[in-house]
Amino acid sequence: MTPSADQGPDRKRKQHQGGRAPKRQKAYKPKPVKEGSSEEVLIADVRALFEAQKISNASQVPIENGNAESANVENGAGQEGSASAETAPVAVETQVEEALPERFTEIEVKVVEISSTGDGLALHPPTNRIYVVPFSVPGDIVKAKVITHFPRDNYSLADFVSVVQPSPLRDDSRVNCKYFSKCSGCQFQMLDYSEQLKHKKSIVEKAYKNFSQLPSELVPAILDTIGSPLQYEYRTKLTPHFDGPPGYRSRANRRSDTKAAFDKVPEIGFMQKGKRATLDIEDCPIGTDAVRMGMKVERKRVAEELHKYQRGATILLRESTKRIYKGDAEYQEDMETPPNTIKVTTPEYTDLKTCITDNKGESTEYIDSFLFTSIAGSFFQNNNSILPVFTQYIRDHALPPPGSYSPDLPKIQYLIDAYSGSGLFTITLSSLFKSSTGIDISDASIISARRNAELNKLDASRCSFMAADAPKLFKQVTYPKDETVVVIDPPRKGCDESFLSQLLKFGPRRVVYVSCNVHTQARDVGVLVNGSEEGVRYEIESLRGFDFFPQTGHVEGVAVLSRVDGEVKGGDAEMVDGKEEVAKEEPTEPEPAKEEPVLNEIKMSE
């Protein structure tokens, strides 16, 4: 059969003569979610809230003030009660949903909890959606502008517009920055600090529930978050930035070798929340006095030297301290304060604090009596006020509690500090051990760490450092595993499989895992608790958060783990170093109020 004119190879050409054929619409393909990312954490919280709302709907129990997980626990199924329009739960399975609002539409939503990323999670019953709204707290009714819908995950992103009805938890008189609710830095300035600490405890709880892959009975109760002594003026490092002049990235300018120039002083500050734009900020109240002073100086310098810049730049602001003790030759009772310096006087010494802006410069700070120097642009904890409490906590938990191990096991005498940086833990814990070794991949960090050991008068035989990739570190350490504790403080992505595998193969007595990302920490701790094929595994001794960054949604996590050296067998015997020992009951001294002696309860160690 001969094809007709409308069926042959020229069909498309004839149909679209005079123009291009319309492009096929590409199917939406969501980008893969990066493991341990804020997006992954947010999706886990959204799914938990969505599921809790479905359950609570069955019993007509509204979710209120951040209790999504307990909504159906505290209220039994079938409980009757009327709900107002504001508190009525979303009928997820039975309600006829309205169409999703168009982008940039303003809607009213009620916030029911704060996500682990620091943004409010709000319900919008007409559309059966969860809206992620920044700068909001549980109980707020807010006006929000819809930005993006994520159909597959049942949530939408929205910008905060205004508060329609404030929650009892909100007090805007607490806000200490005029850029709050615009700047992407702080999220909780309207919250009482005790509420911030409660929320950060819940972040750790949800991290281990969602990412550890462990049954609840293997995860101990999360301890209260340790707060920062300073809630403002605590950050010893800030990095404001400014963008390049208009057109500095254009292809036309690059082809013609035309160099764009600034026609005015650009915005210098931090990213605006939800927008790819820099917010001009002349002062940041979470910075220390020295850092805030440096910010003013640098803003003035950039304005005066604007002709030297052809593109944007990031400005380093890093506090550095010079301490002069009373007995020092240069100490003076009424010494003058040098220019661009903050003077802090105590009965024992005077601190002169300045702001370093050179990335390759050297900064100095003190933690109790320990002295640390580091390259100004390198990583060091940015809240000095909490470091004495934090390092003391690690010291208190590096060694096992008295009586928690078999007397047949030797004393712990060695420390391995993986990801050691400039030696924070290696040096502050050194007095507990016969020998300590810090290991880091950065040669520059190792140089700083060795210098810090010398400054703190620690002999190299007792406190040493080596440059090595963390996954290979156990090949270079000869400490006996039964006498060793390992402290790990990896980057946000956590430890890789190779490192965890080698750690389990080495099998140190104890592990203290410090992390700025409790979600990847929970994942890695789950691997250590589940153990290796050879039978080496750990139990979680304690979990706790530290608030290094008040007013924000970040929390530092500390997990203390001990190696499981024996399993309880049958209730009357235990395995110690592979040998079964019968537990014997021994009488104690009789208590005065009783006629017969009371036997001590025999505690079986795992």
TrEMBL record:
Q: Which keywords annotate this record?
A: Methyltransferase, S-adenosyl-L-methionine, Transferase, tRNA processing
Q: Give the InterPro entries listed for this entry.
A: MeTrfase_TrmA_AS, MeTrfase_TrmA_CS, NA-bd_OB-fold, SAM-dependent_MTases_sf, TRAM_dom, tRNA_(uracil-5-)_MeTrfase, U5_MeTrfase_fam
- What GO molecular function annotation could you give as one example from this UniProt entry? tRNA (uracil(54)-C5)-methyltransferase activity, S-adenosyl methionine-dependent
Q: Where is the active site?
A: 516
Provide the reaction this enzyme catalyses: uridine(54) in tRNA + S-adenosyl-L-methionine = 5-methyluridine(54) in tRNA + S-adenosyl-L-homocysteine + H(+)
Q: What is its EC number?
A: 2.1.1.35
Region entry Disordered, spans? 1-39, 570-606
Binding of S-adenosyl-L-methionine: at which residues?
381, 419, 440, 489
Residues covered by the TRAM domain = 103-147
Q: Where is the composition biased (Basic residues)?
A: 11-31
Which terms under GO biological process does the entry name?
A: methylation; RNA modification; tRNA processing
> Member of which family?
Belongs to the class I-like SAM-binding methyltransferase superfamily. RNA M5U methyltransferase family.
Q: Briefly state the protein's biological role.
A: Catalyzes the formation of 5-methyl-uridine at position 54 (m5U54) in all tRNA. May also have a role in tRNA stabilization or maturation.
**This chain belongs to which protein, by name?**
tRNA (uracil(54)-C(5))-methyltransferase
Q: Which organism is it from?
A: Botryotinia fuckeliana (strain T4)
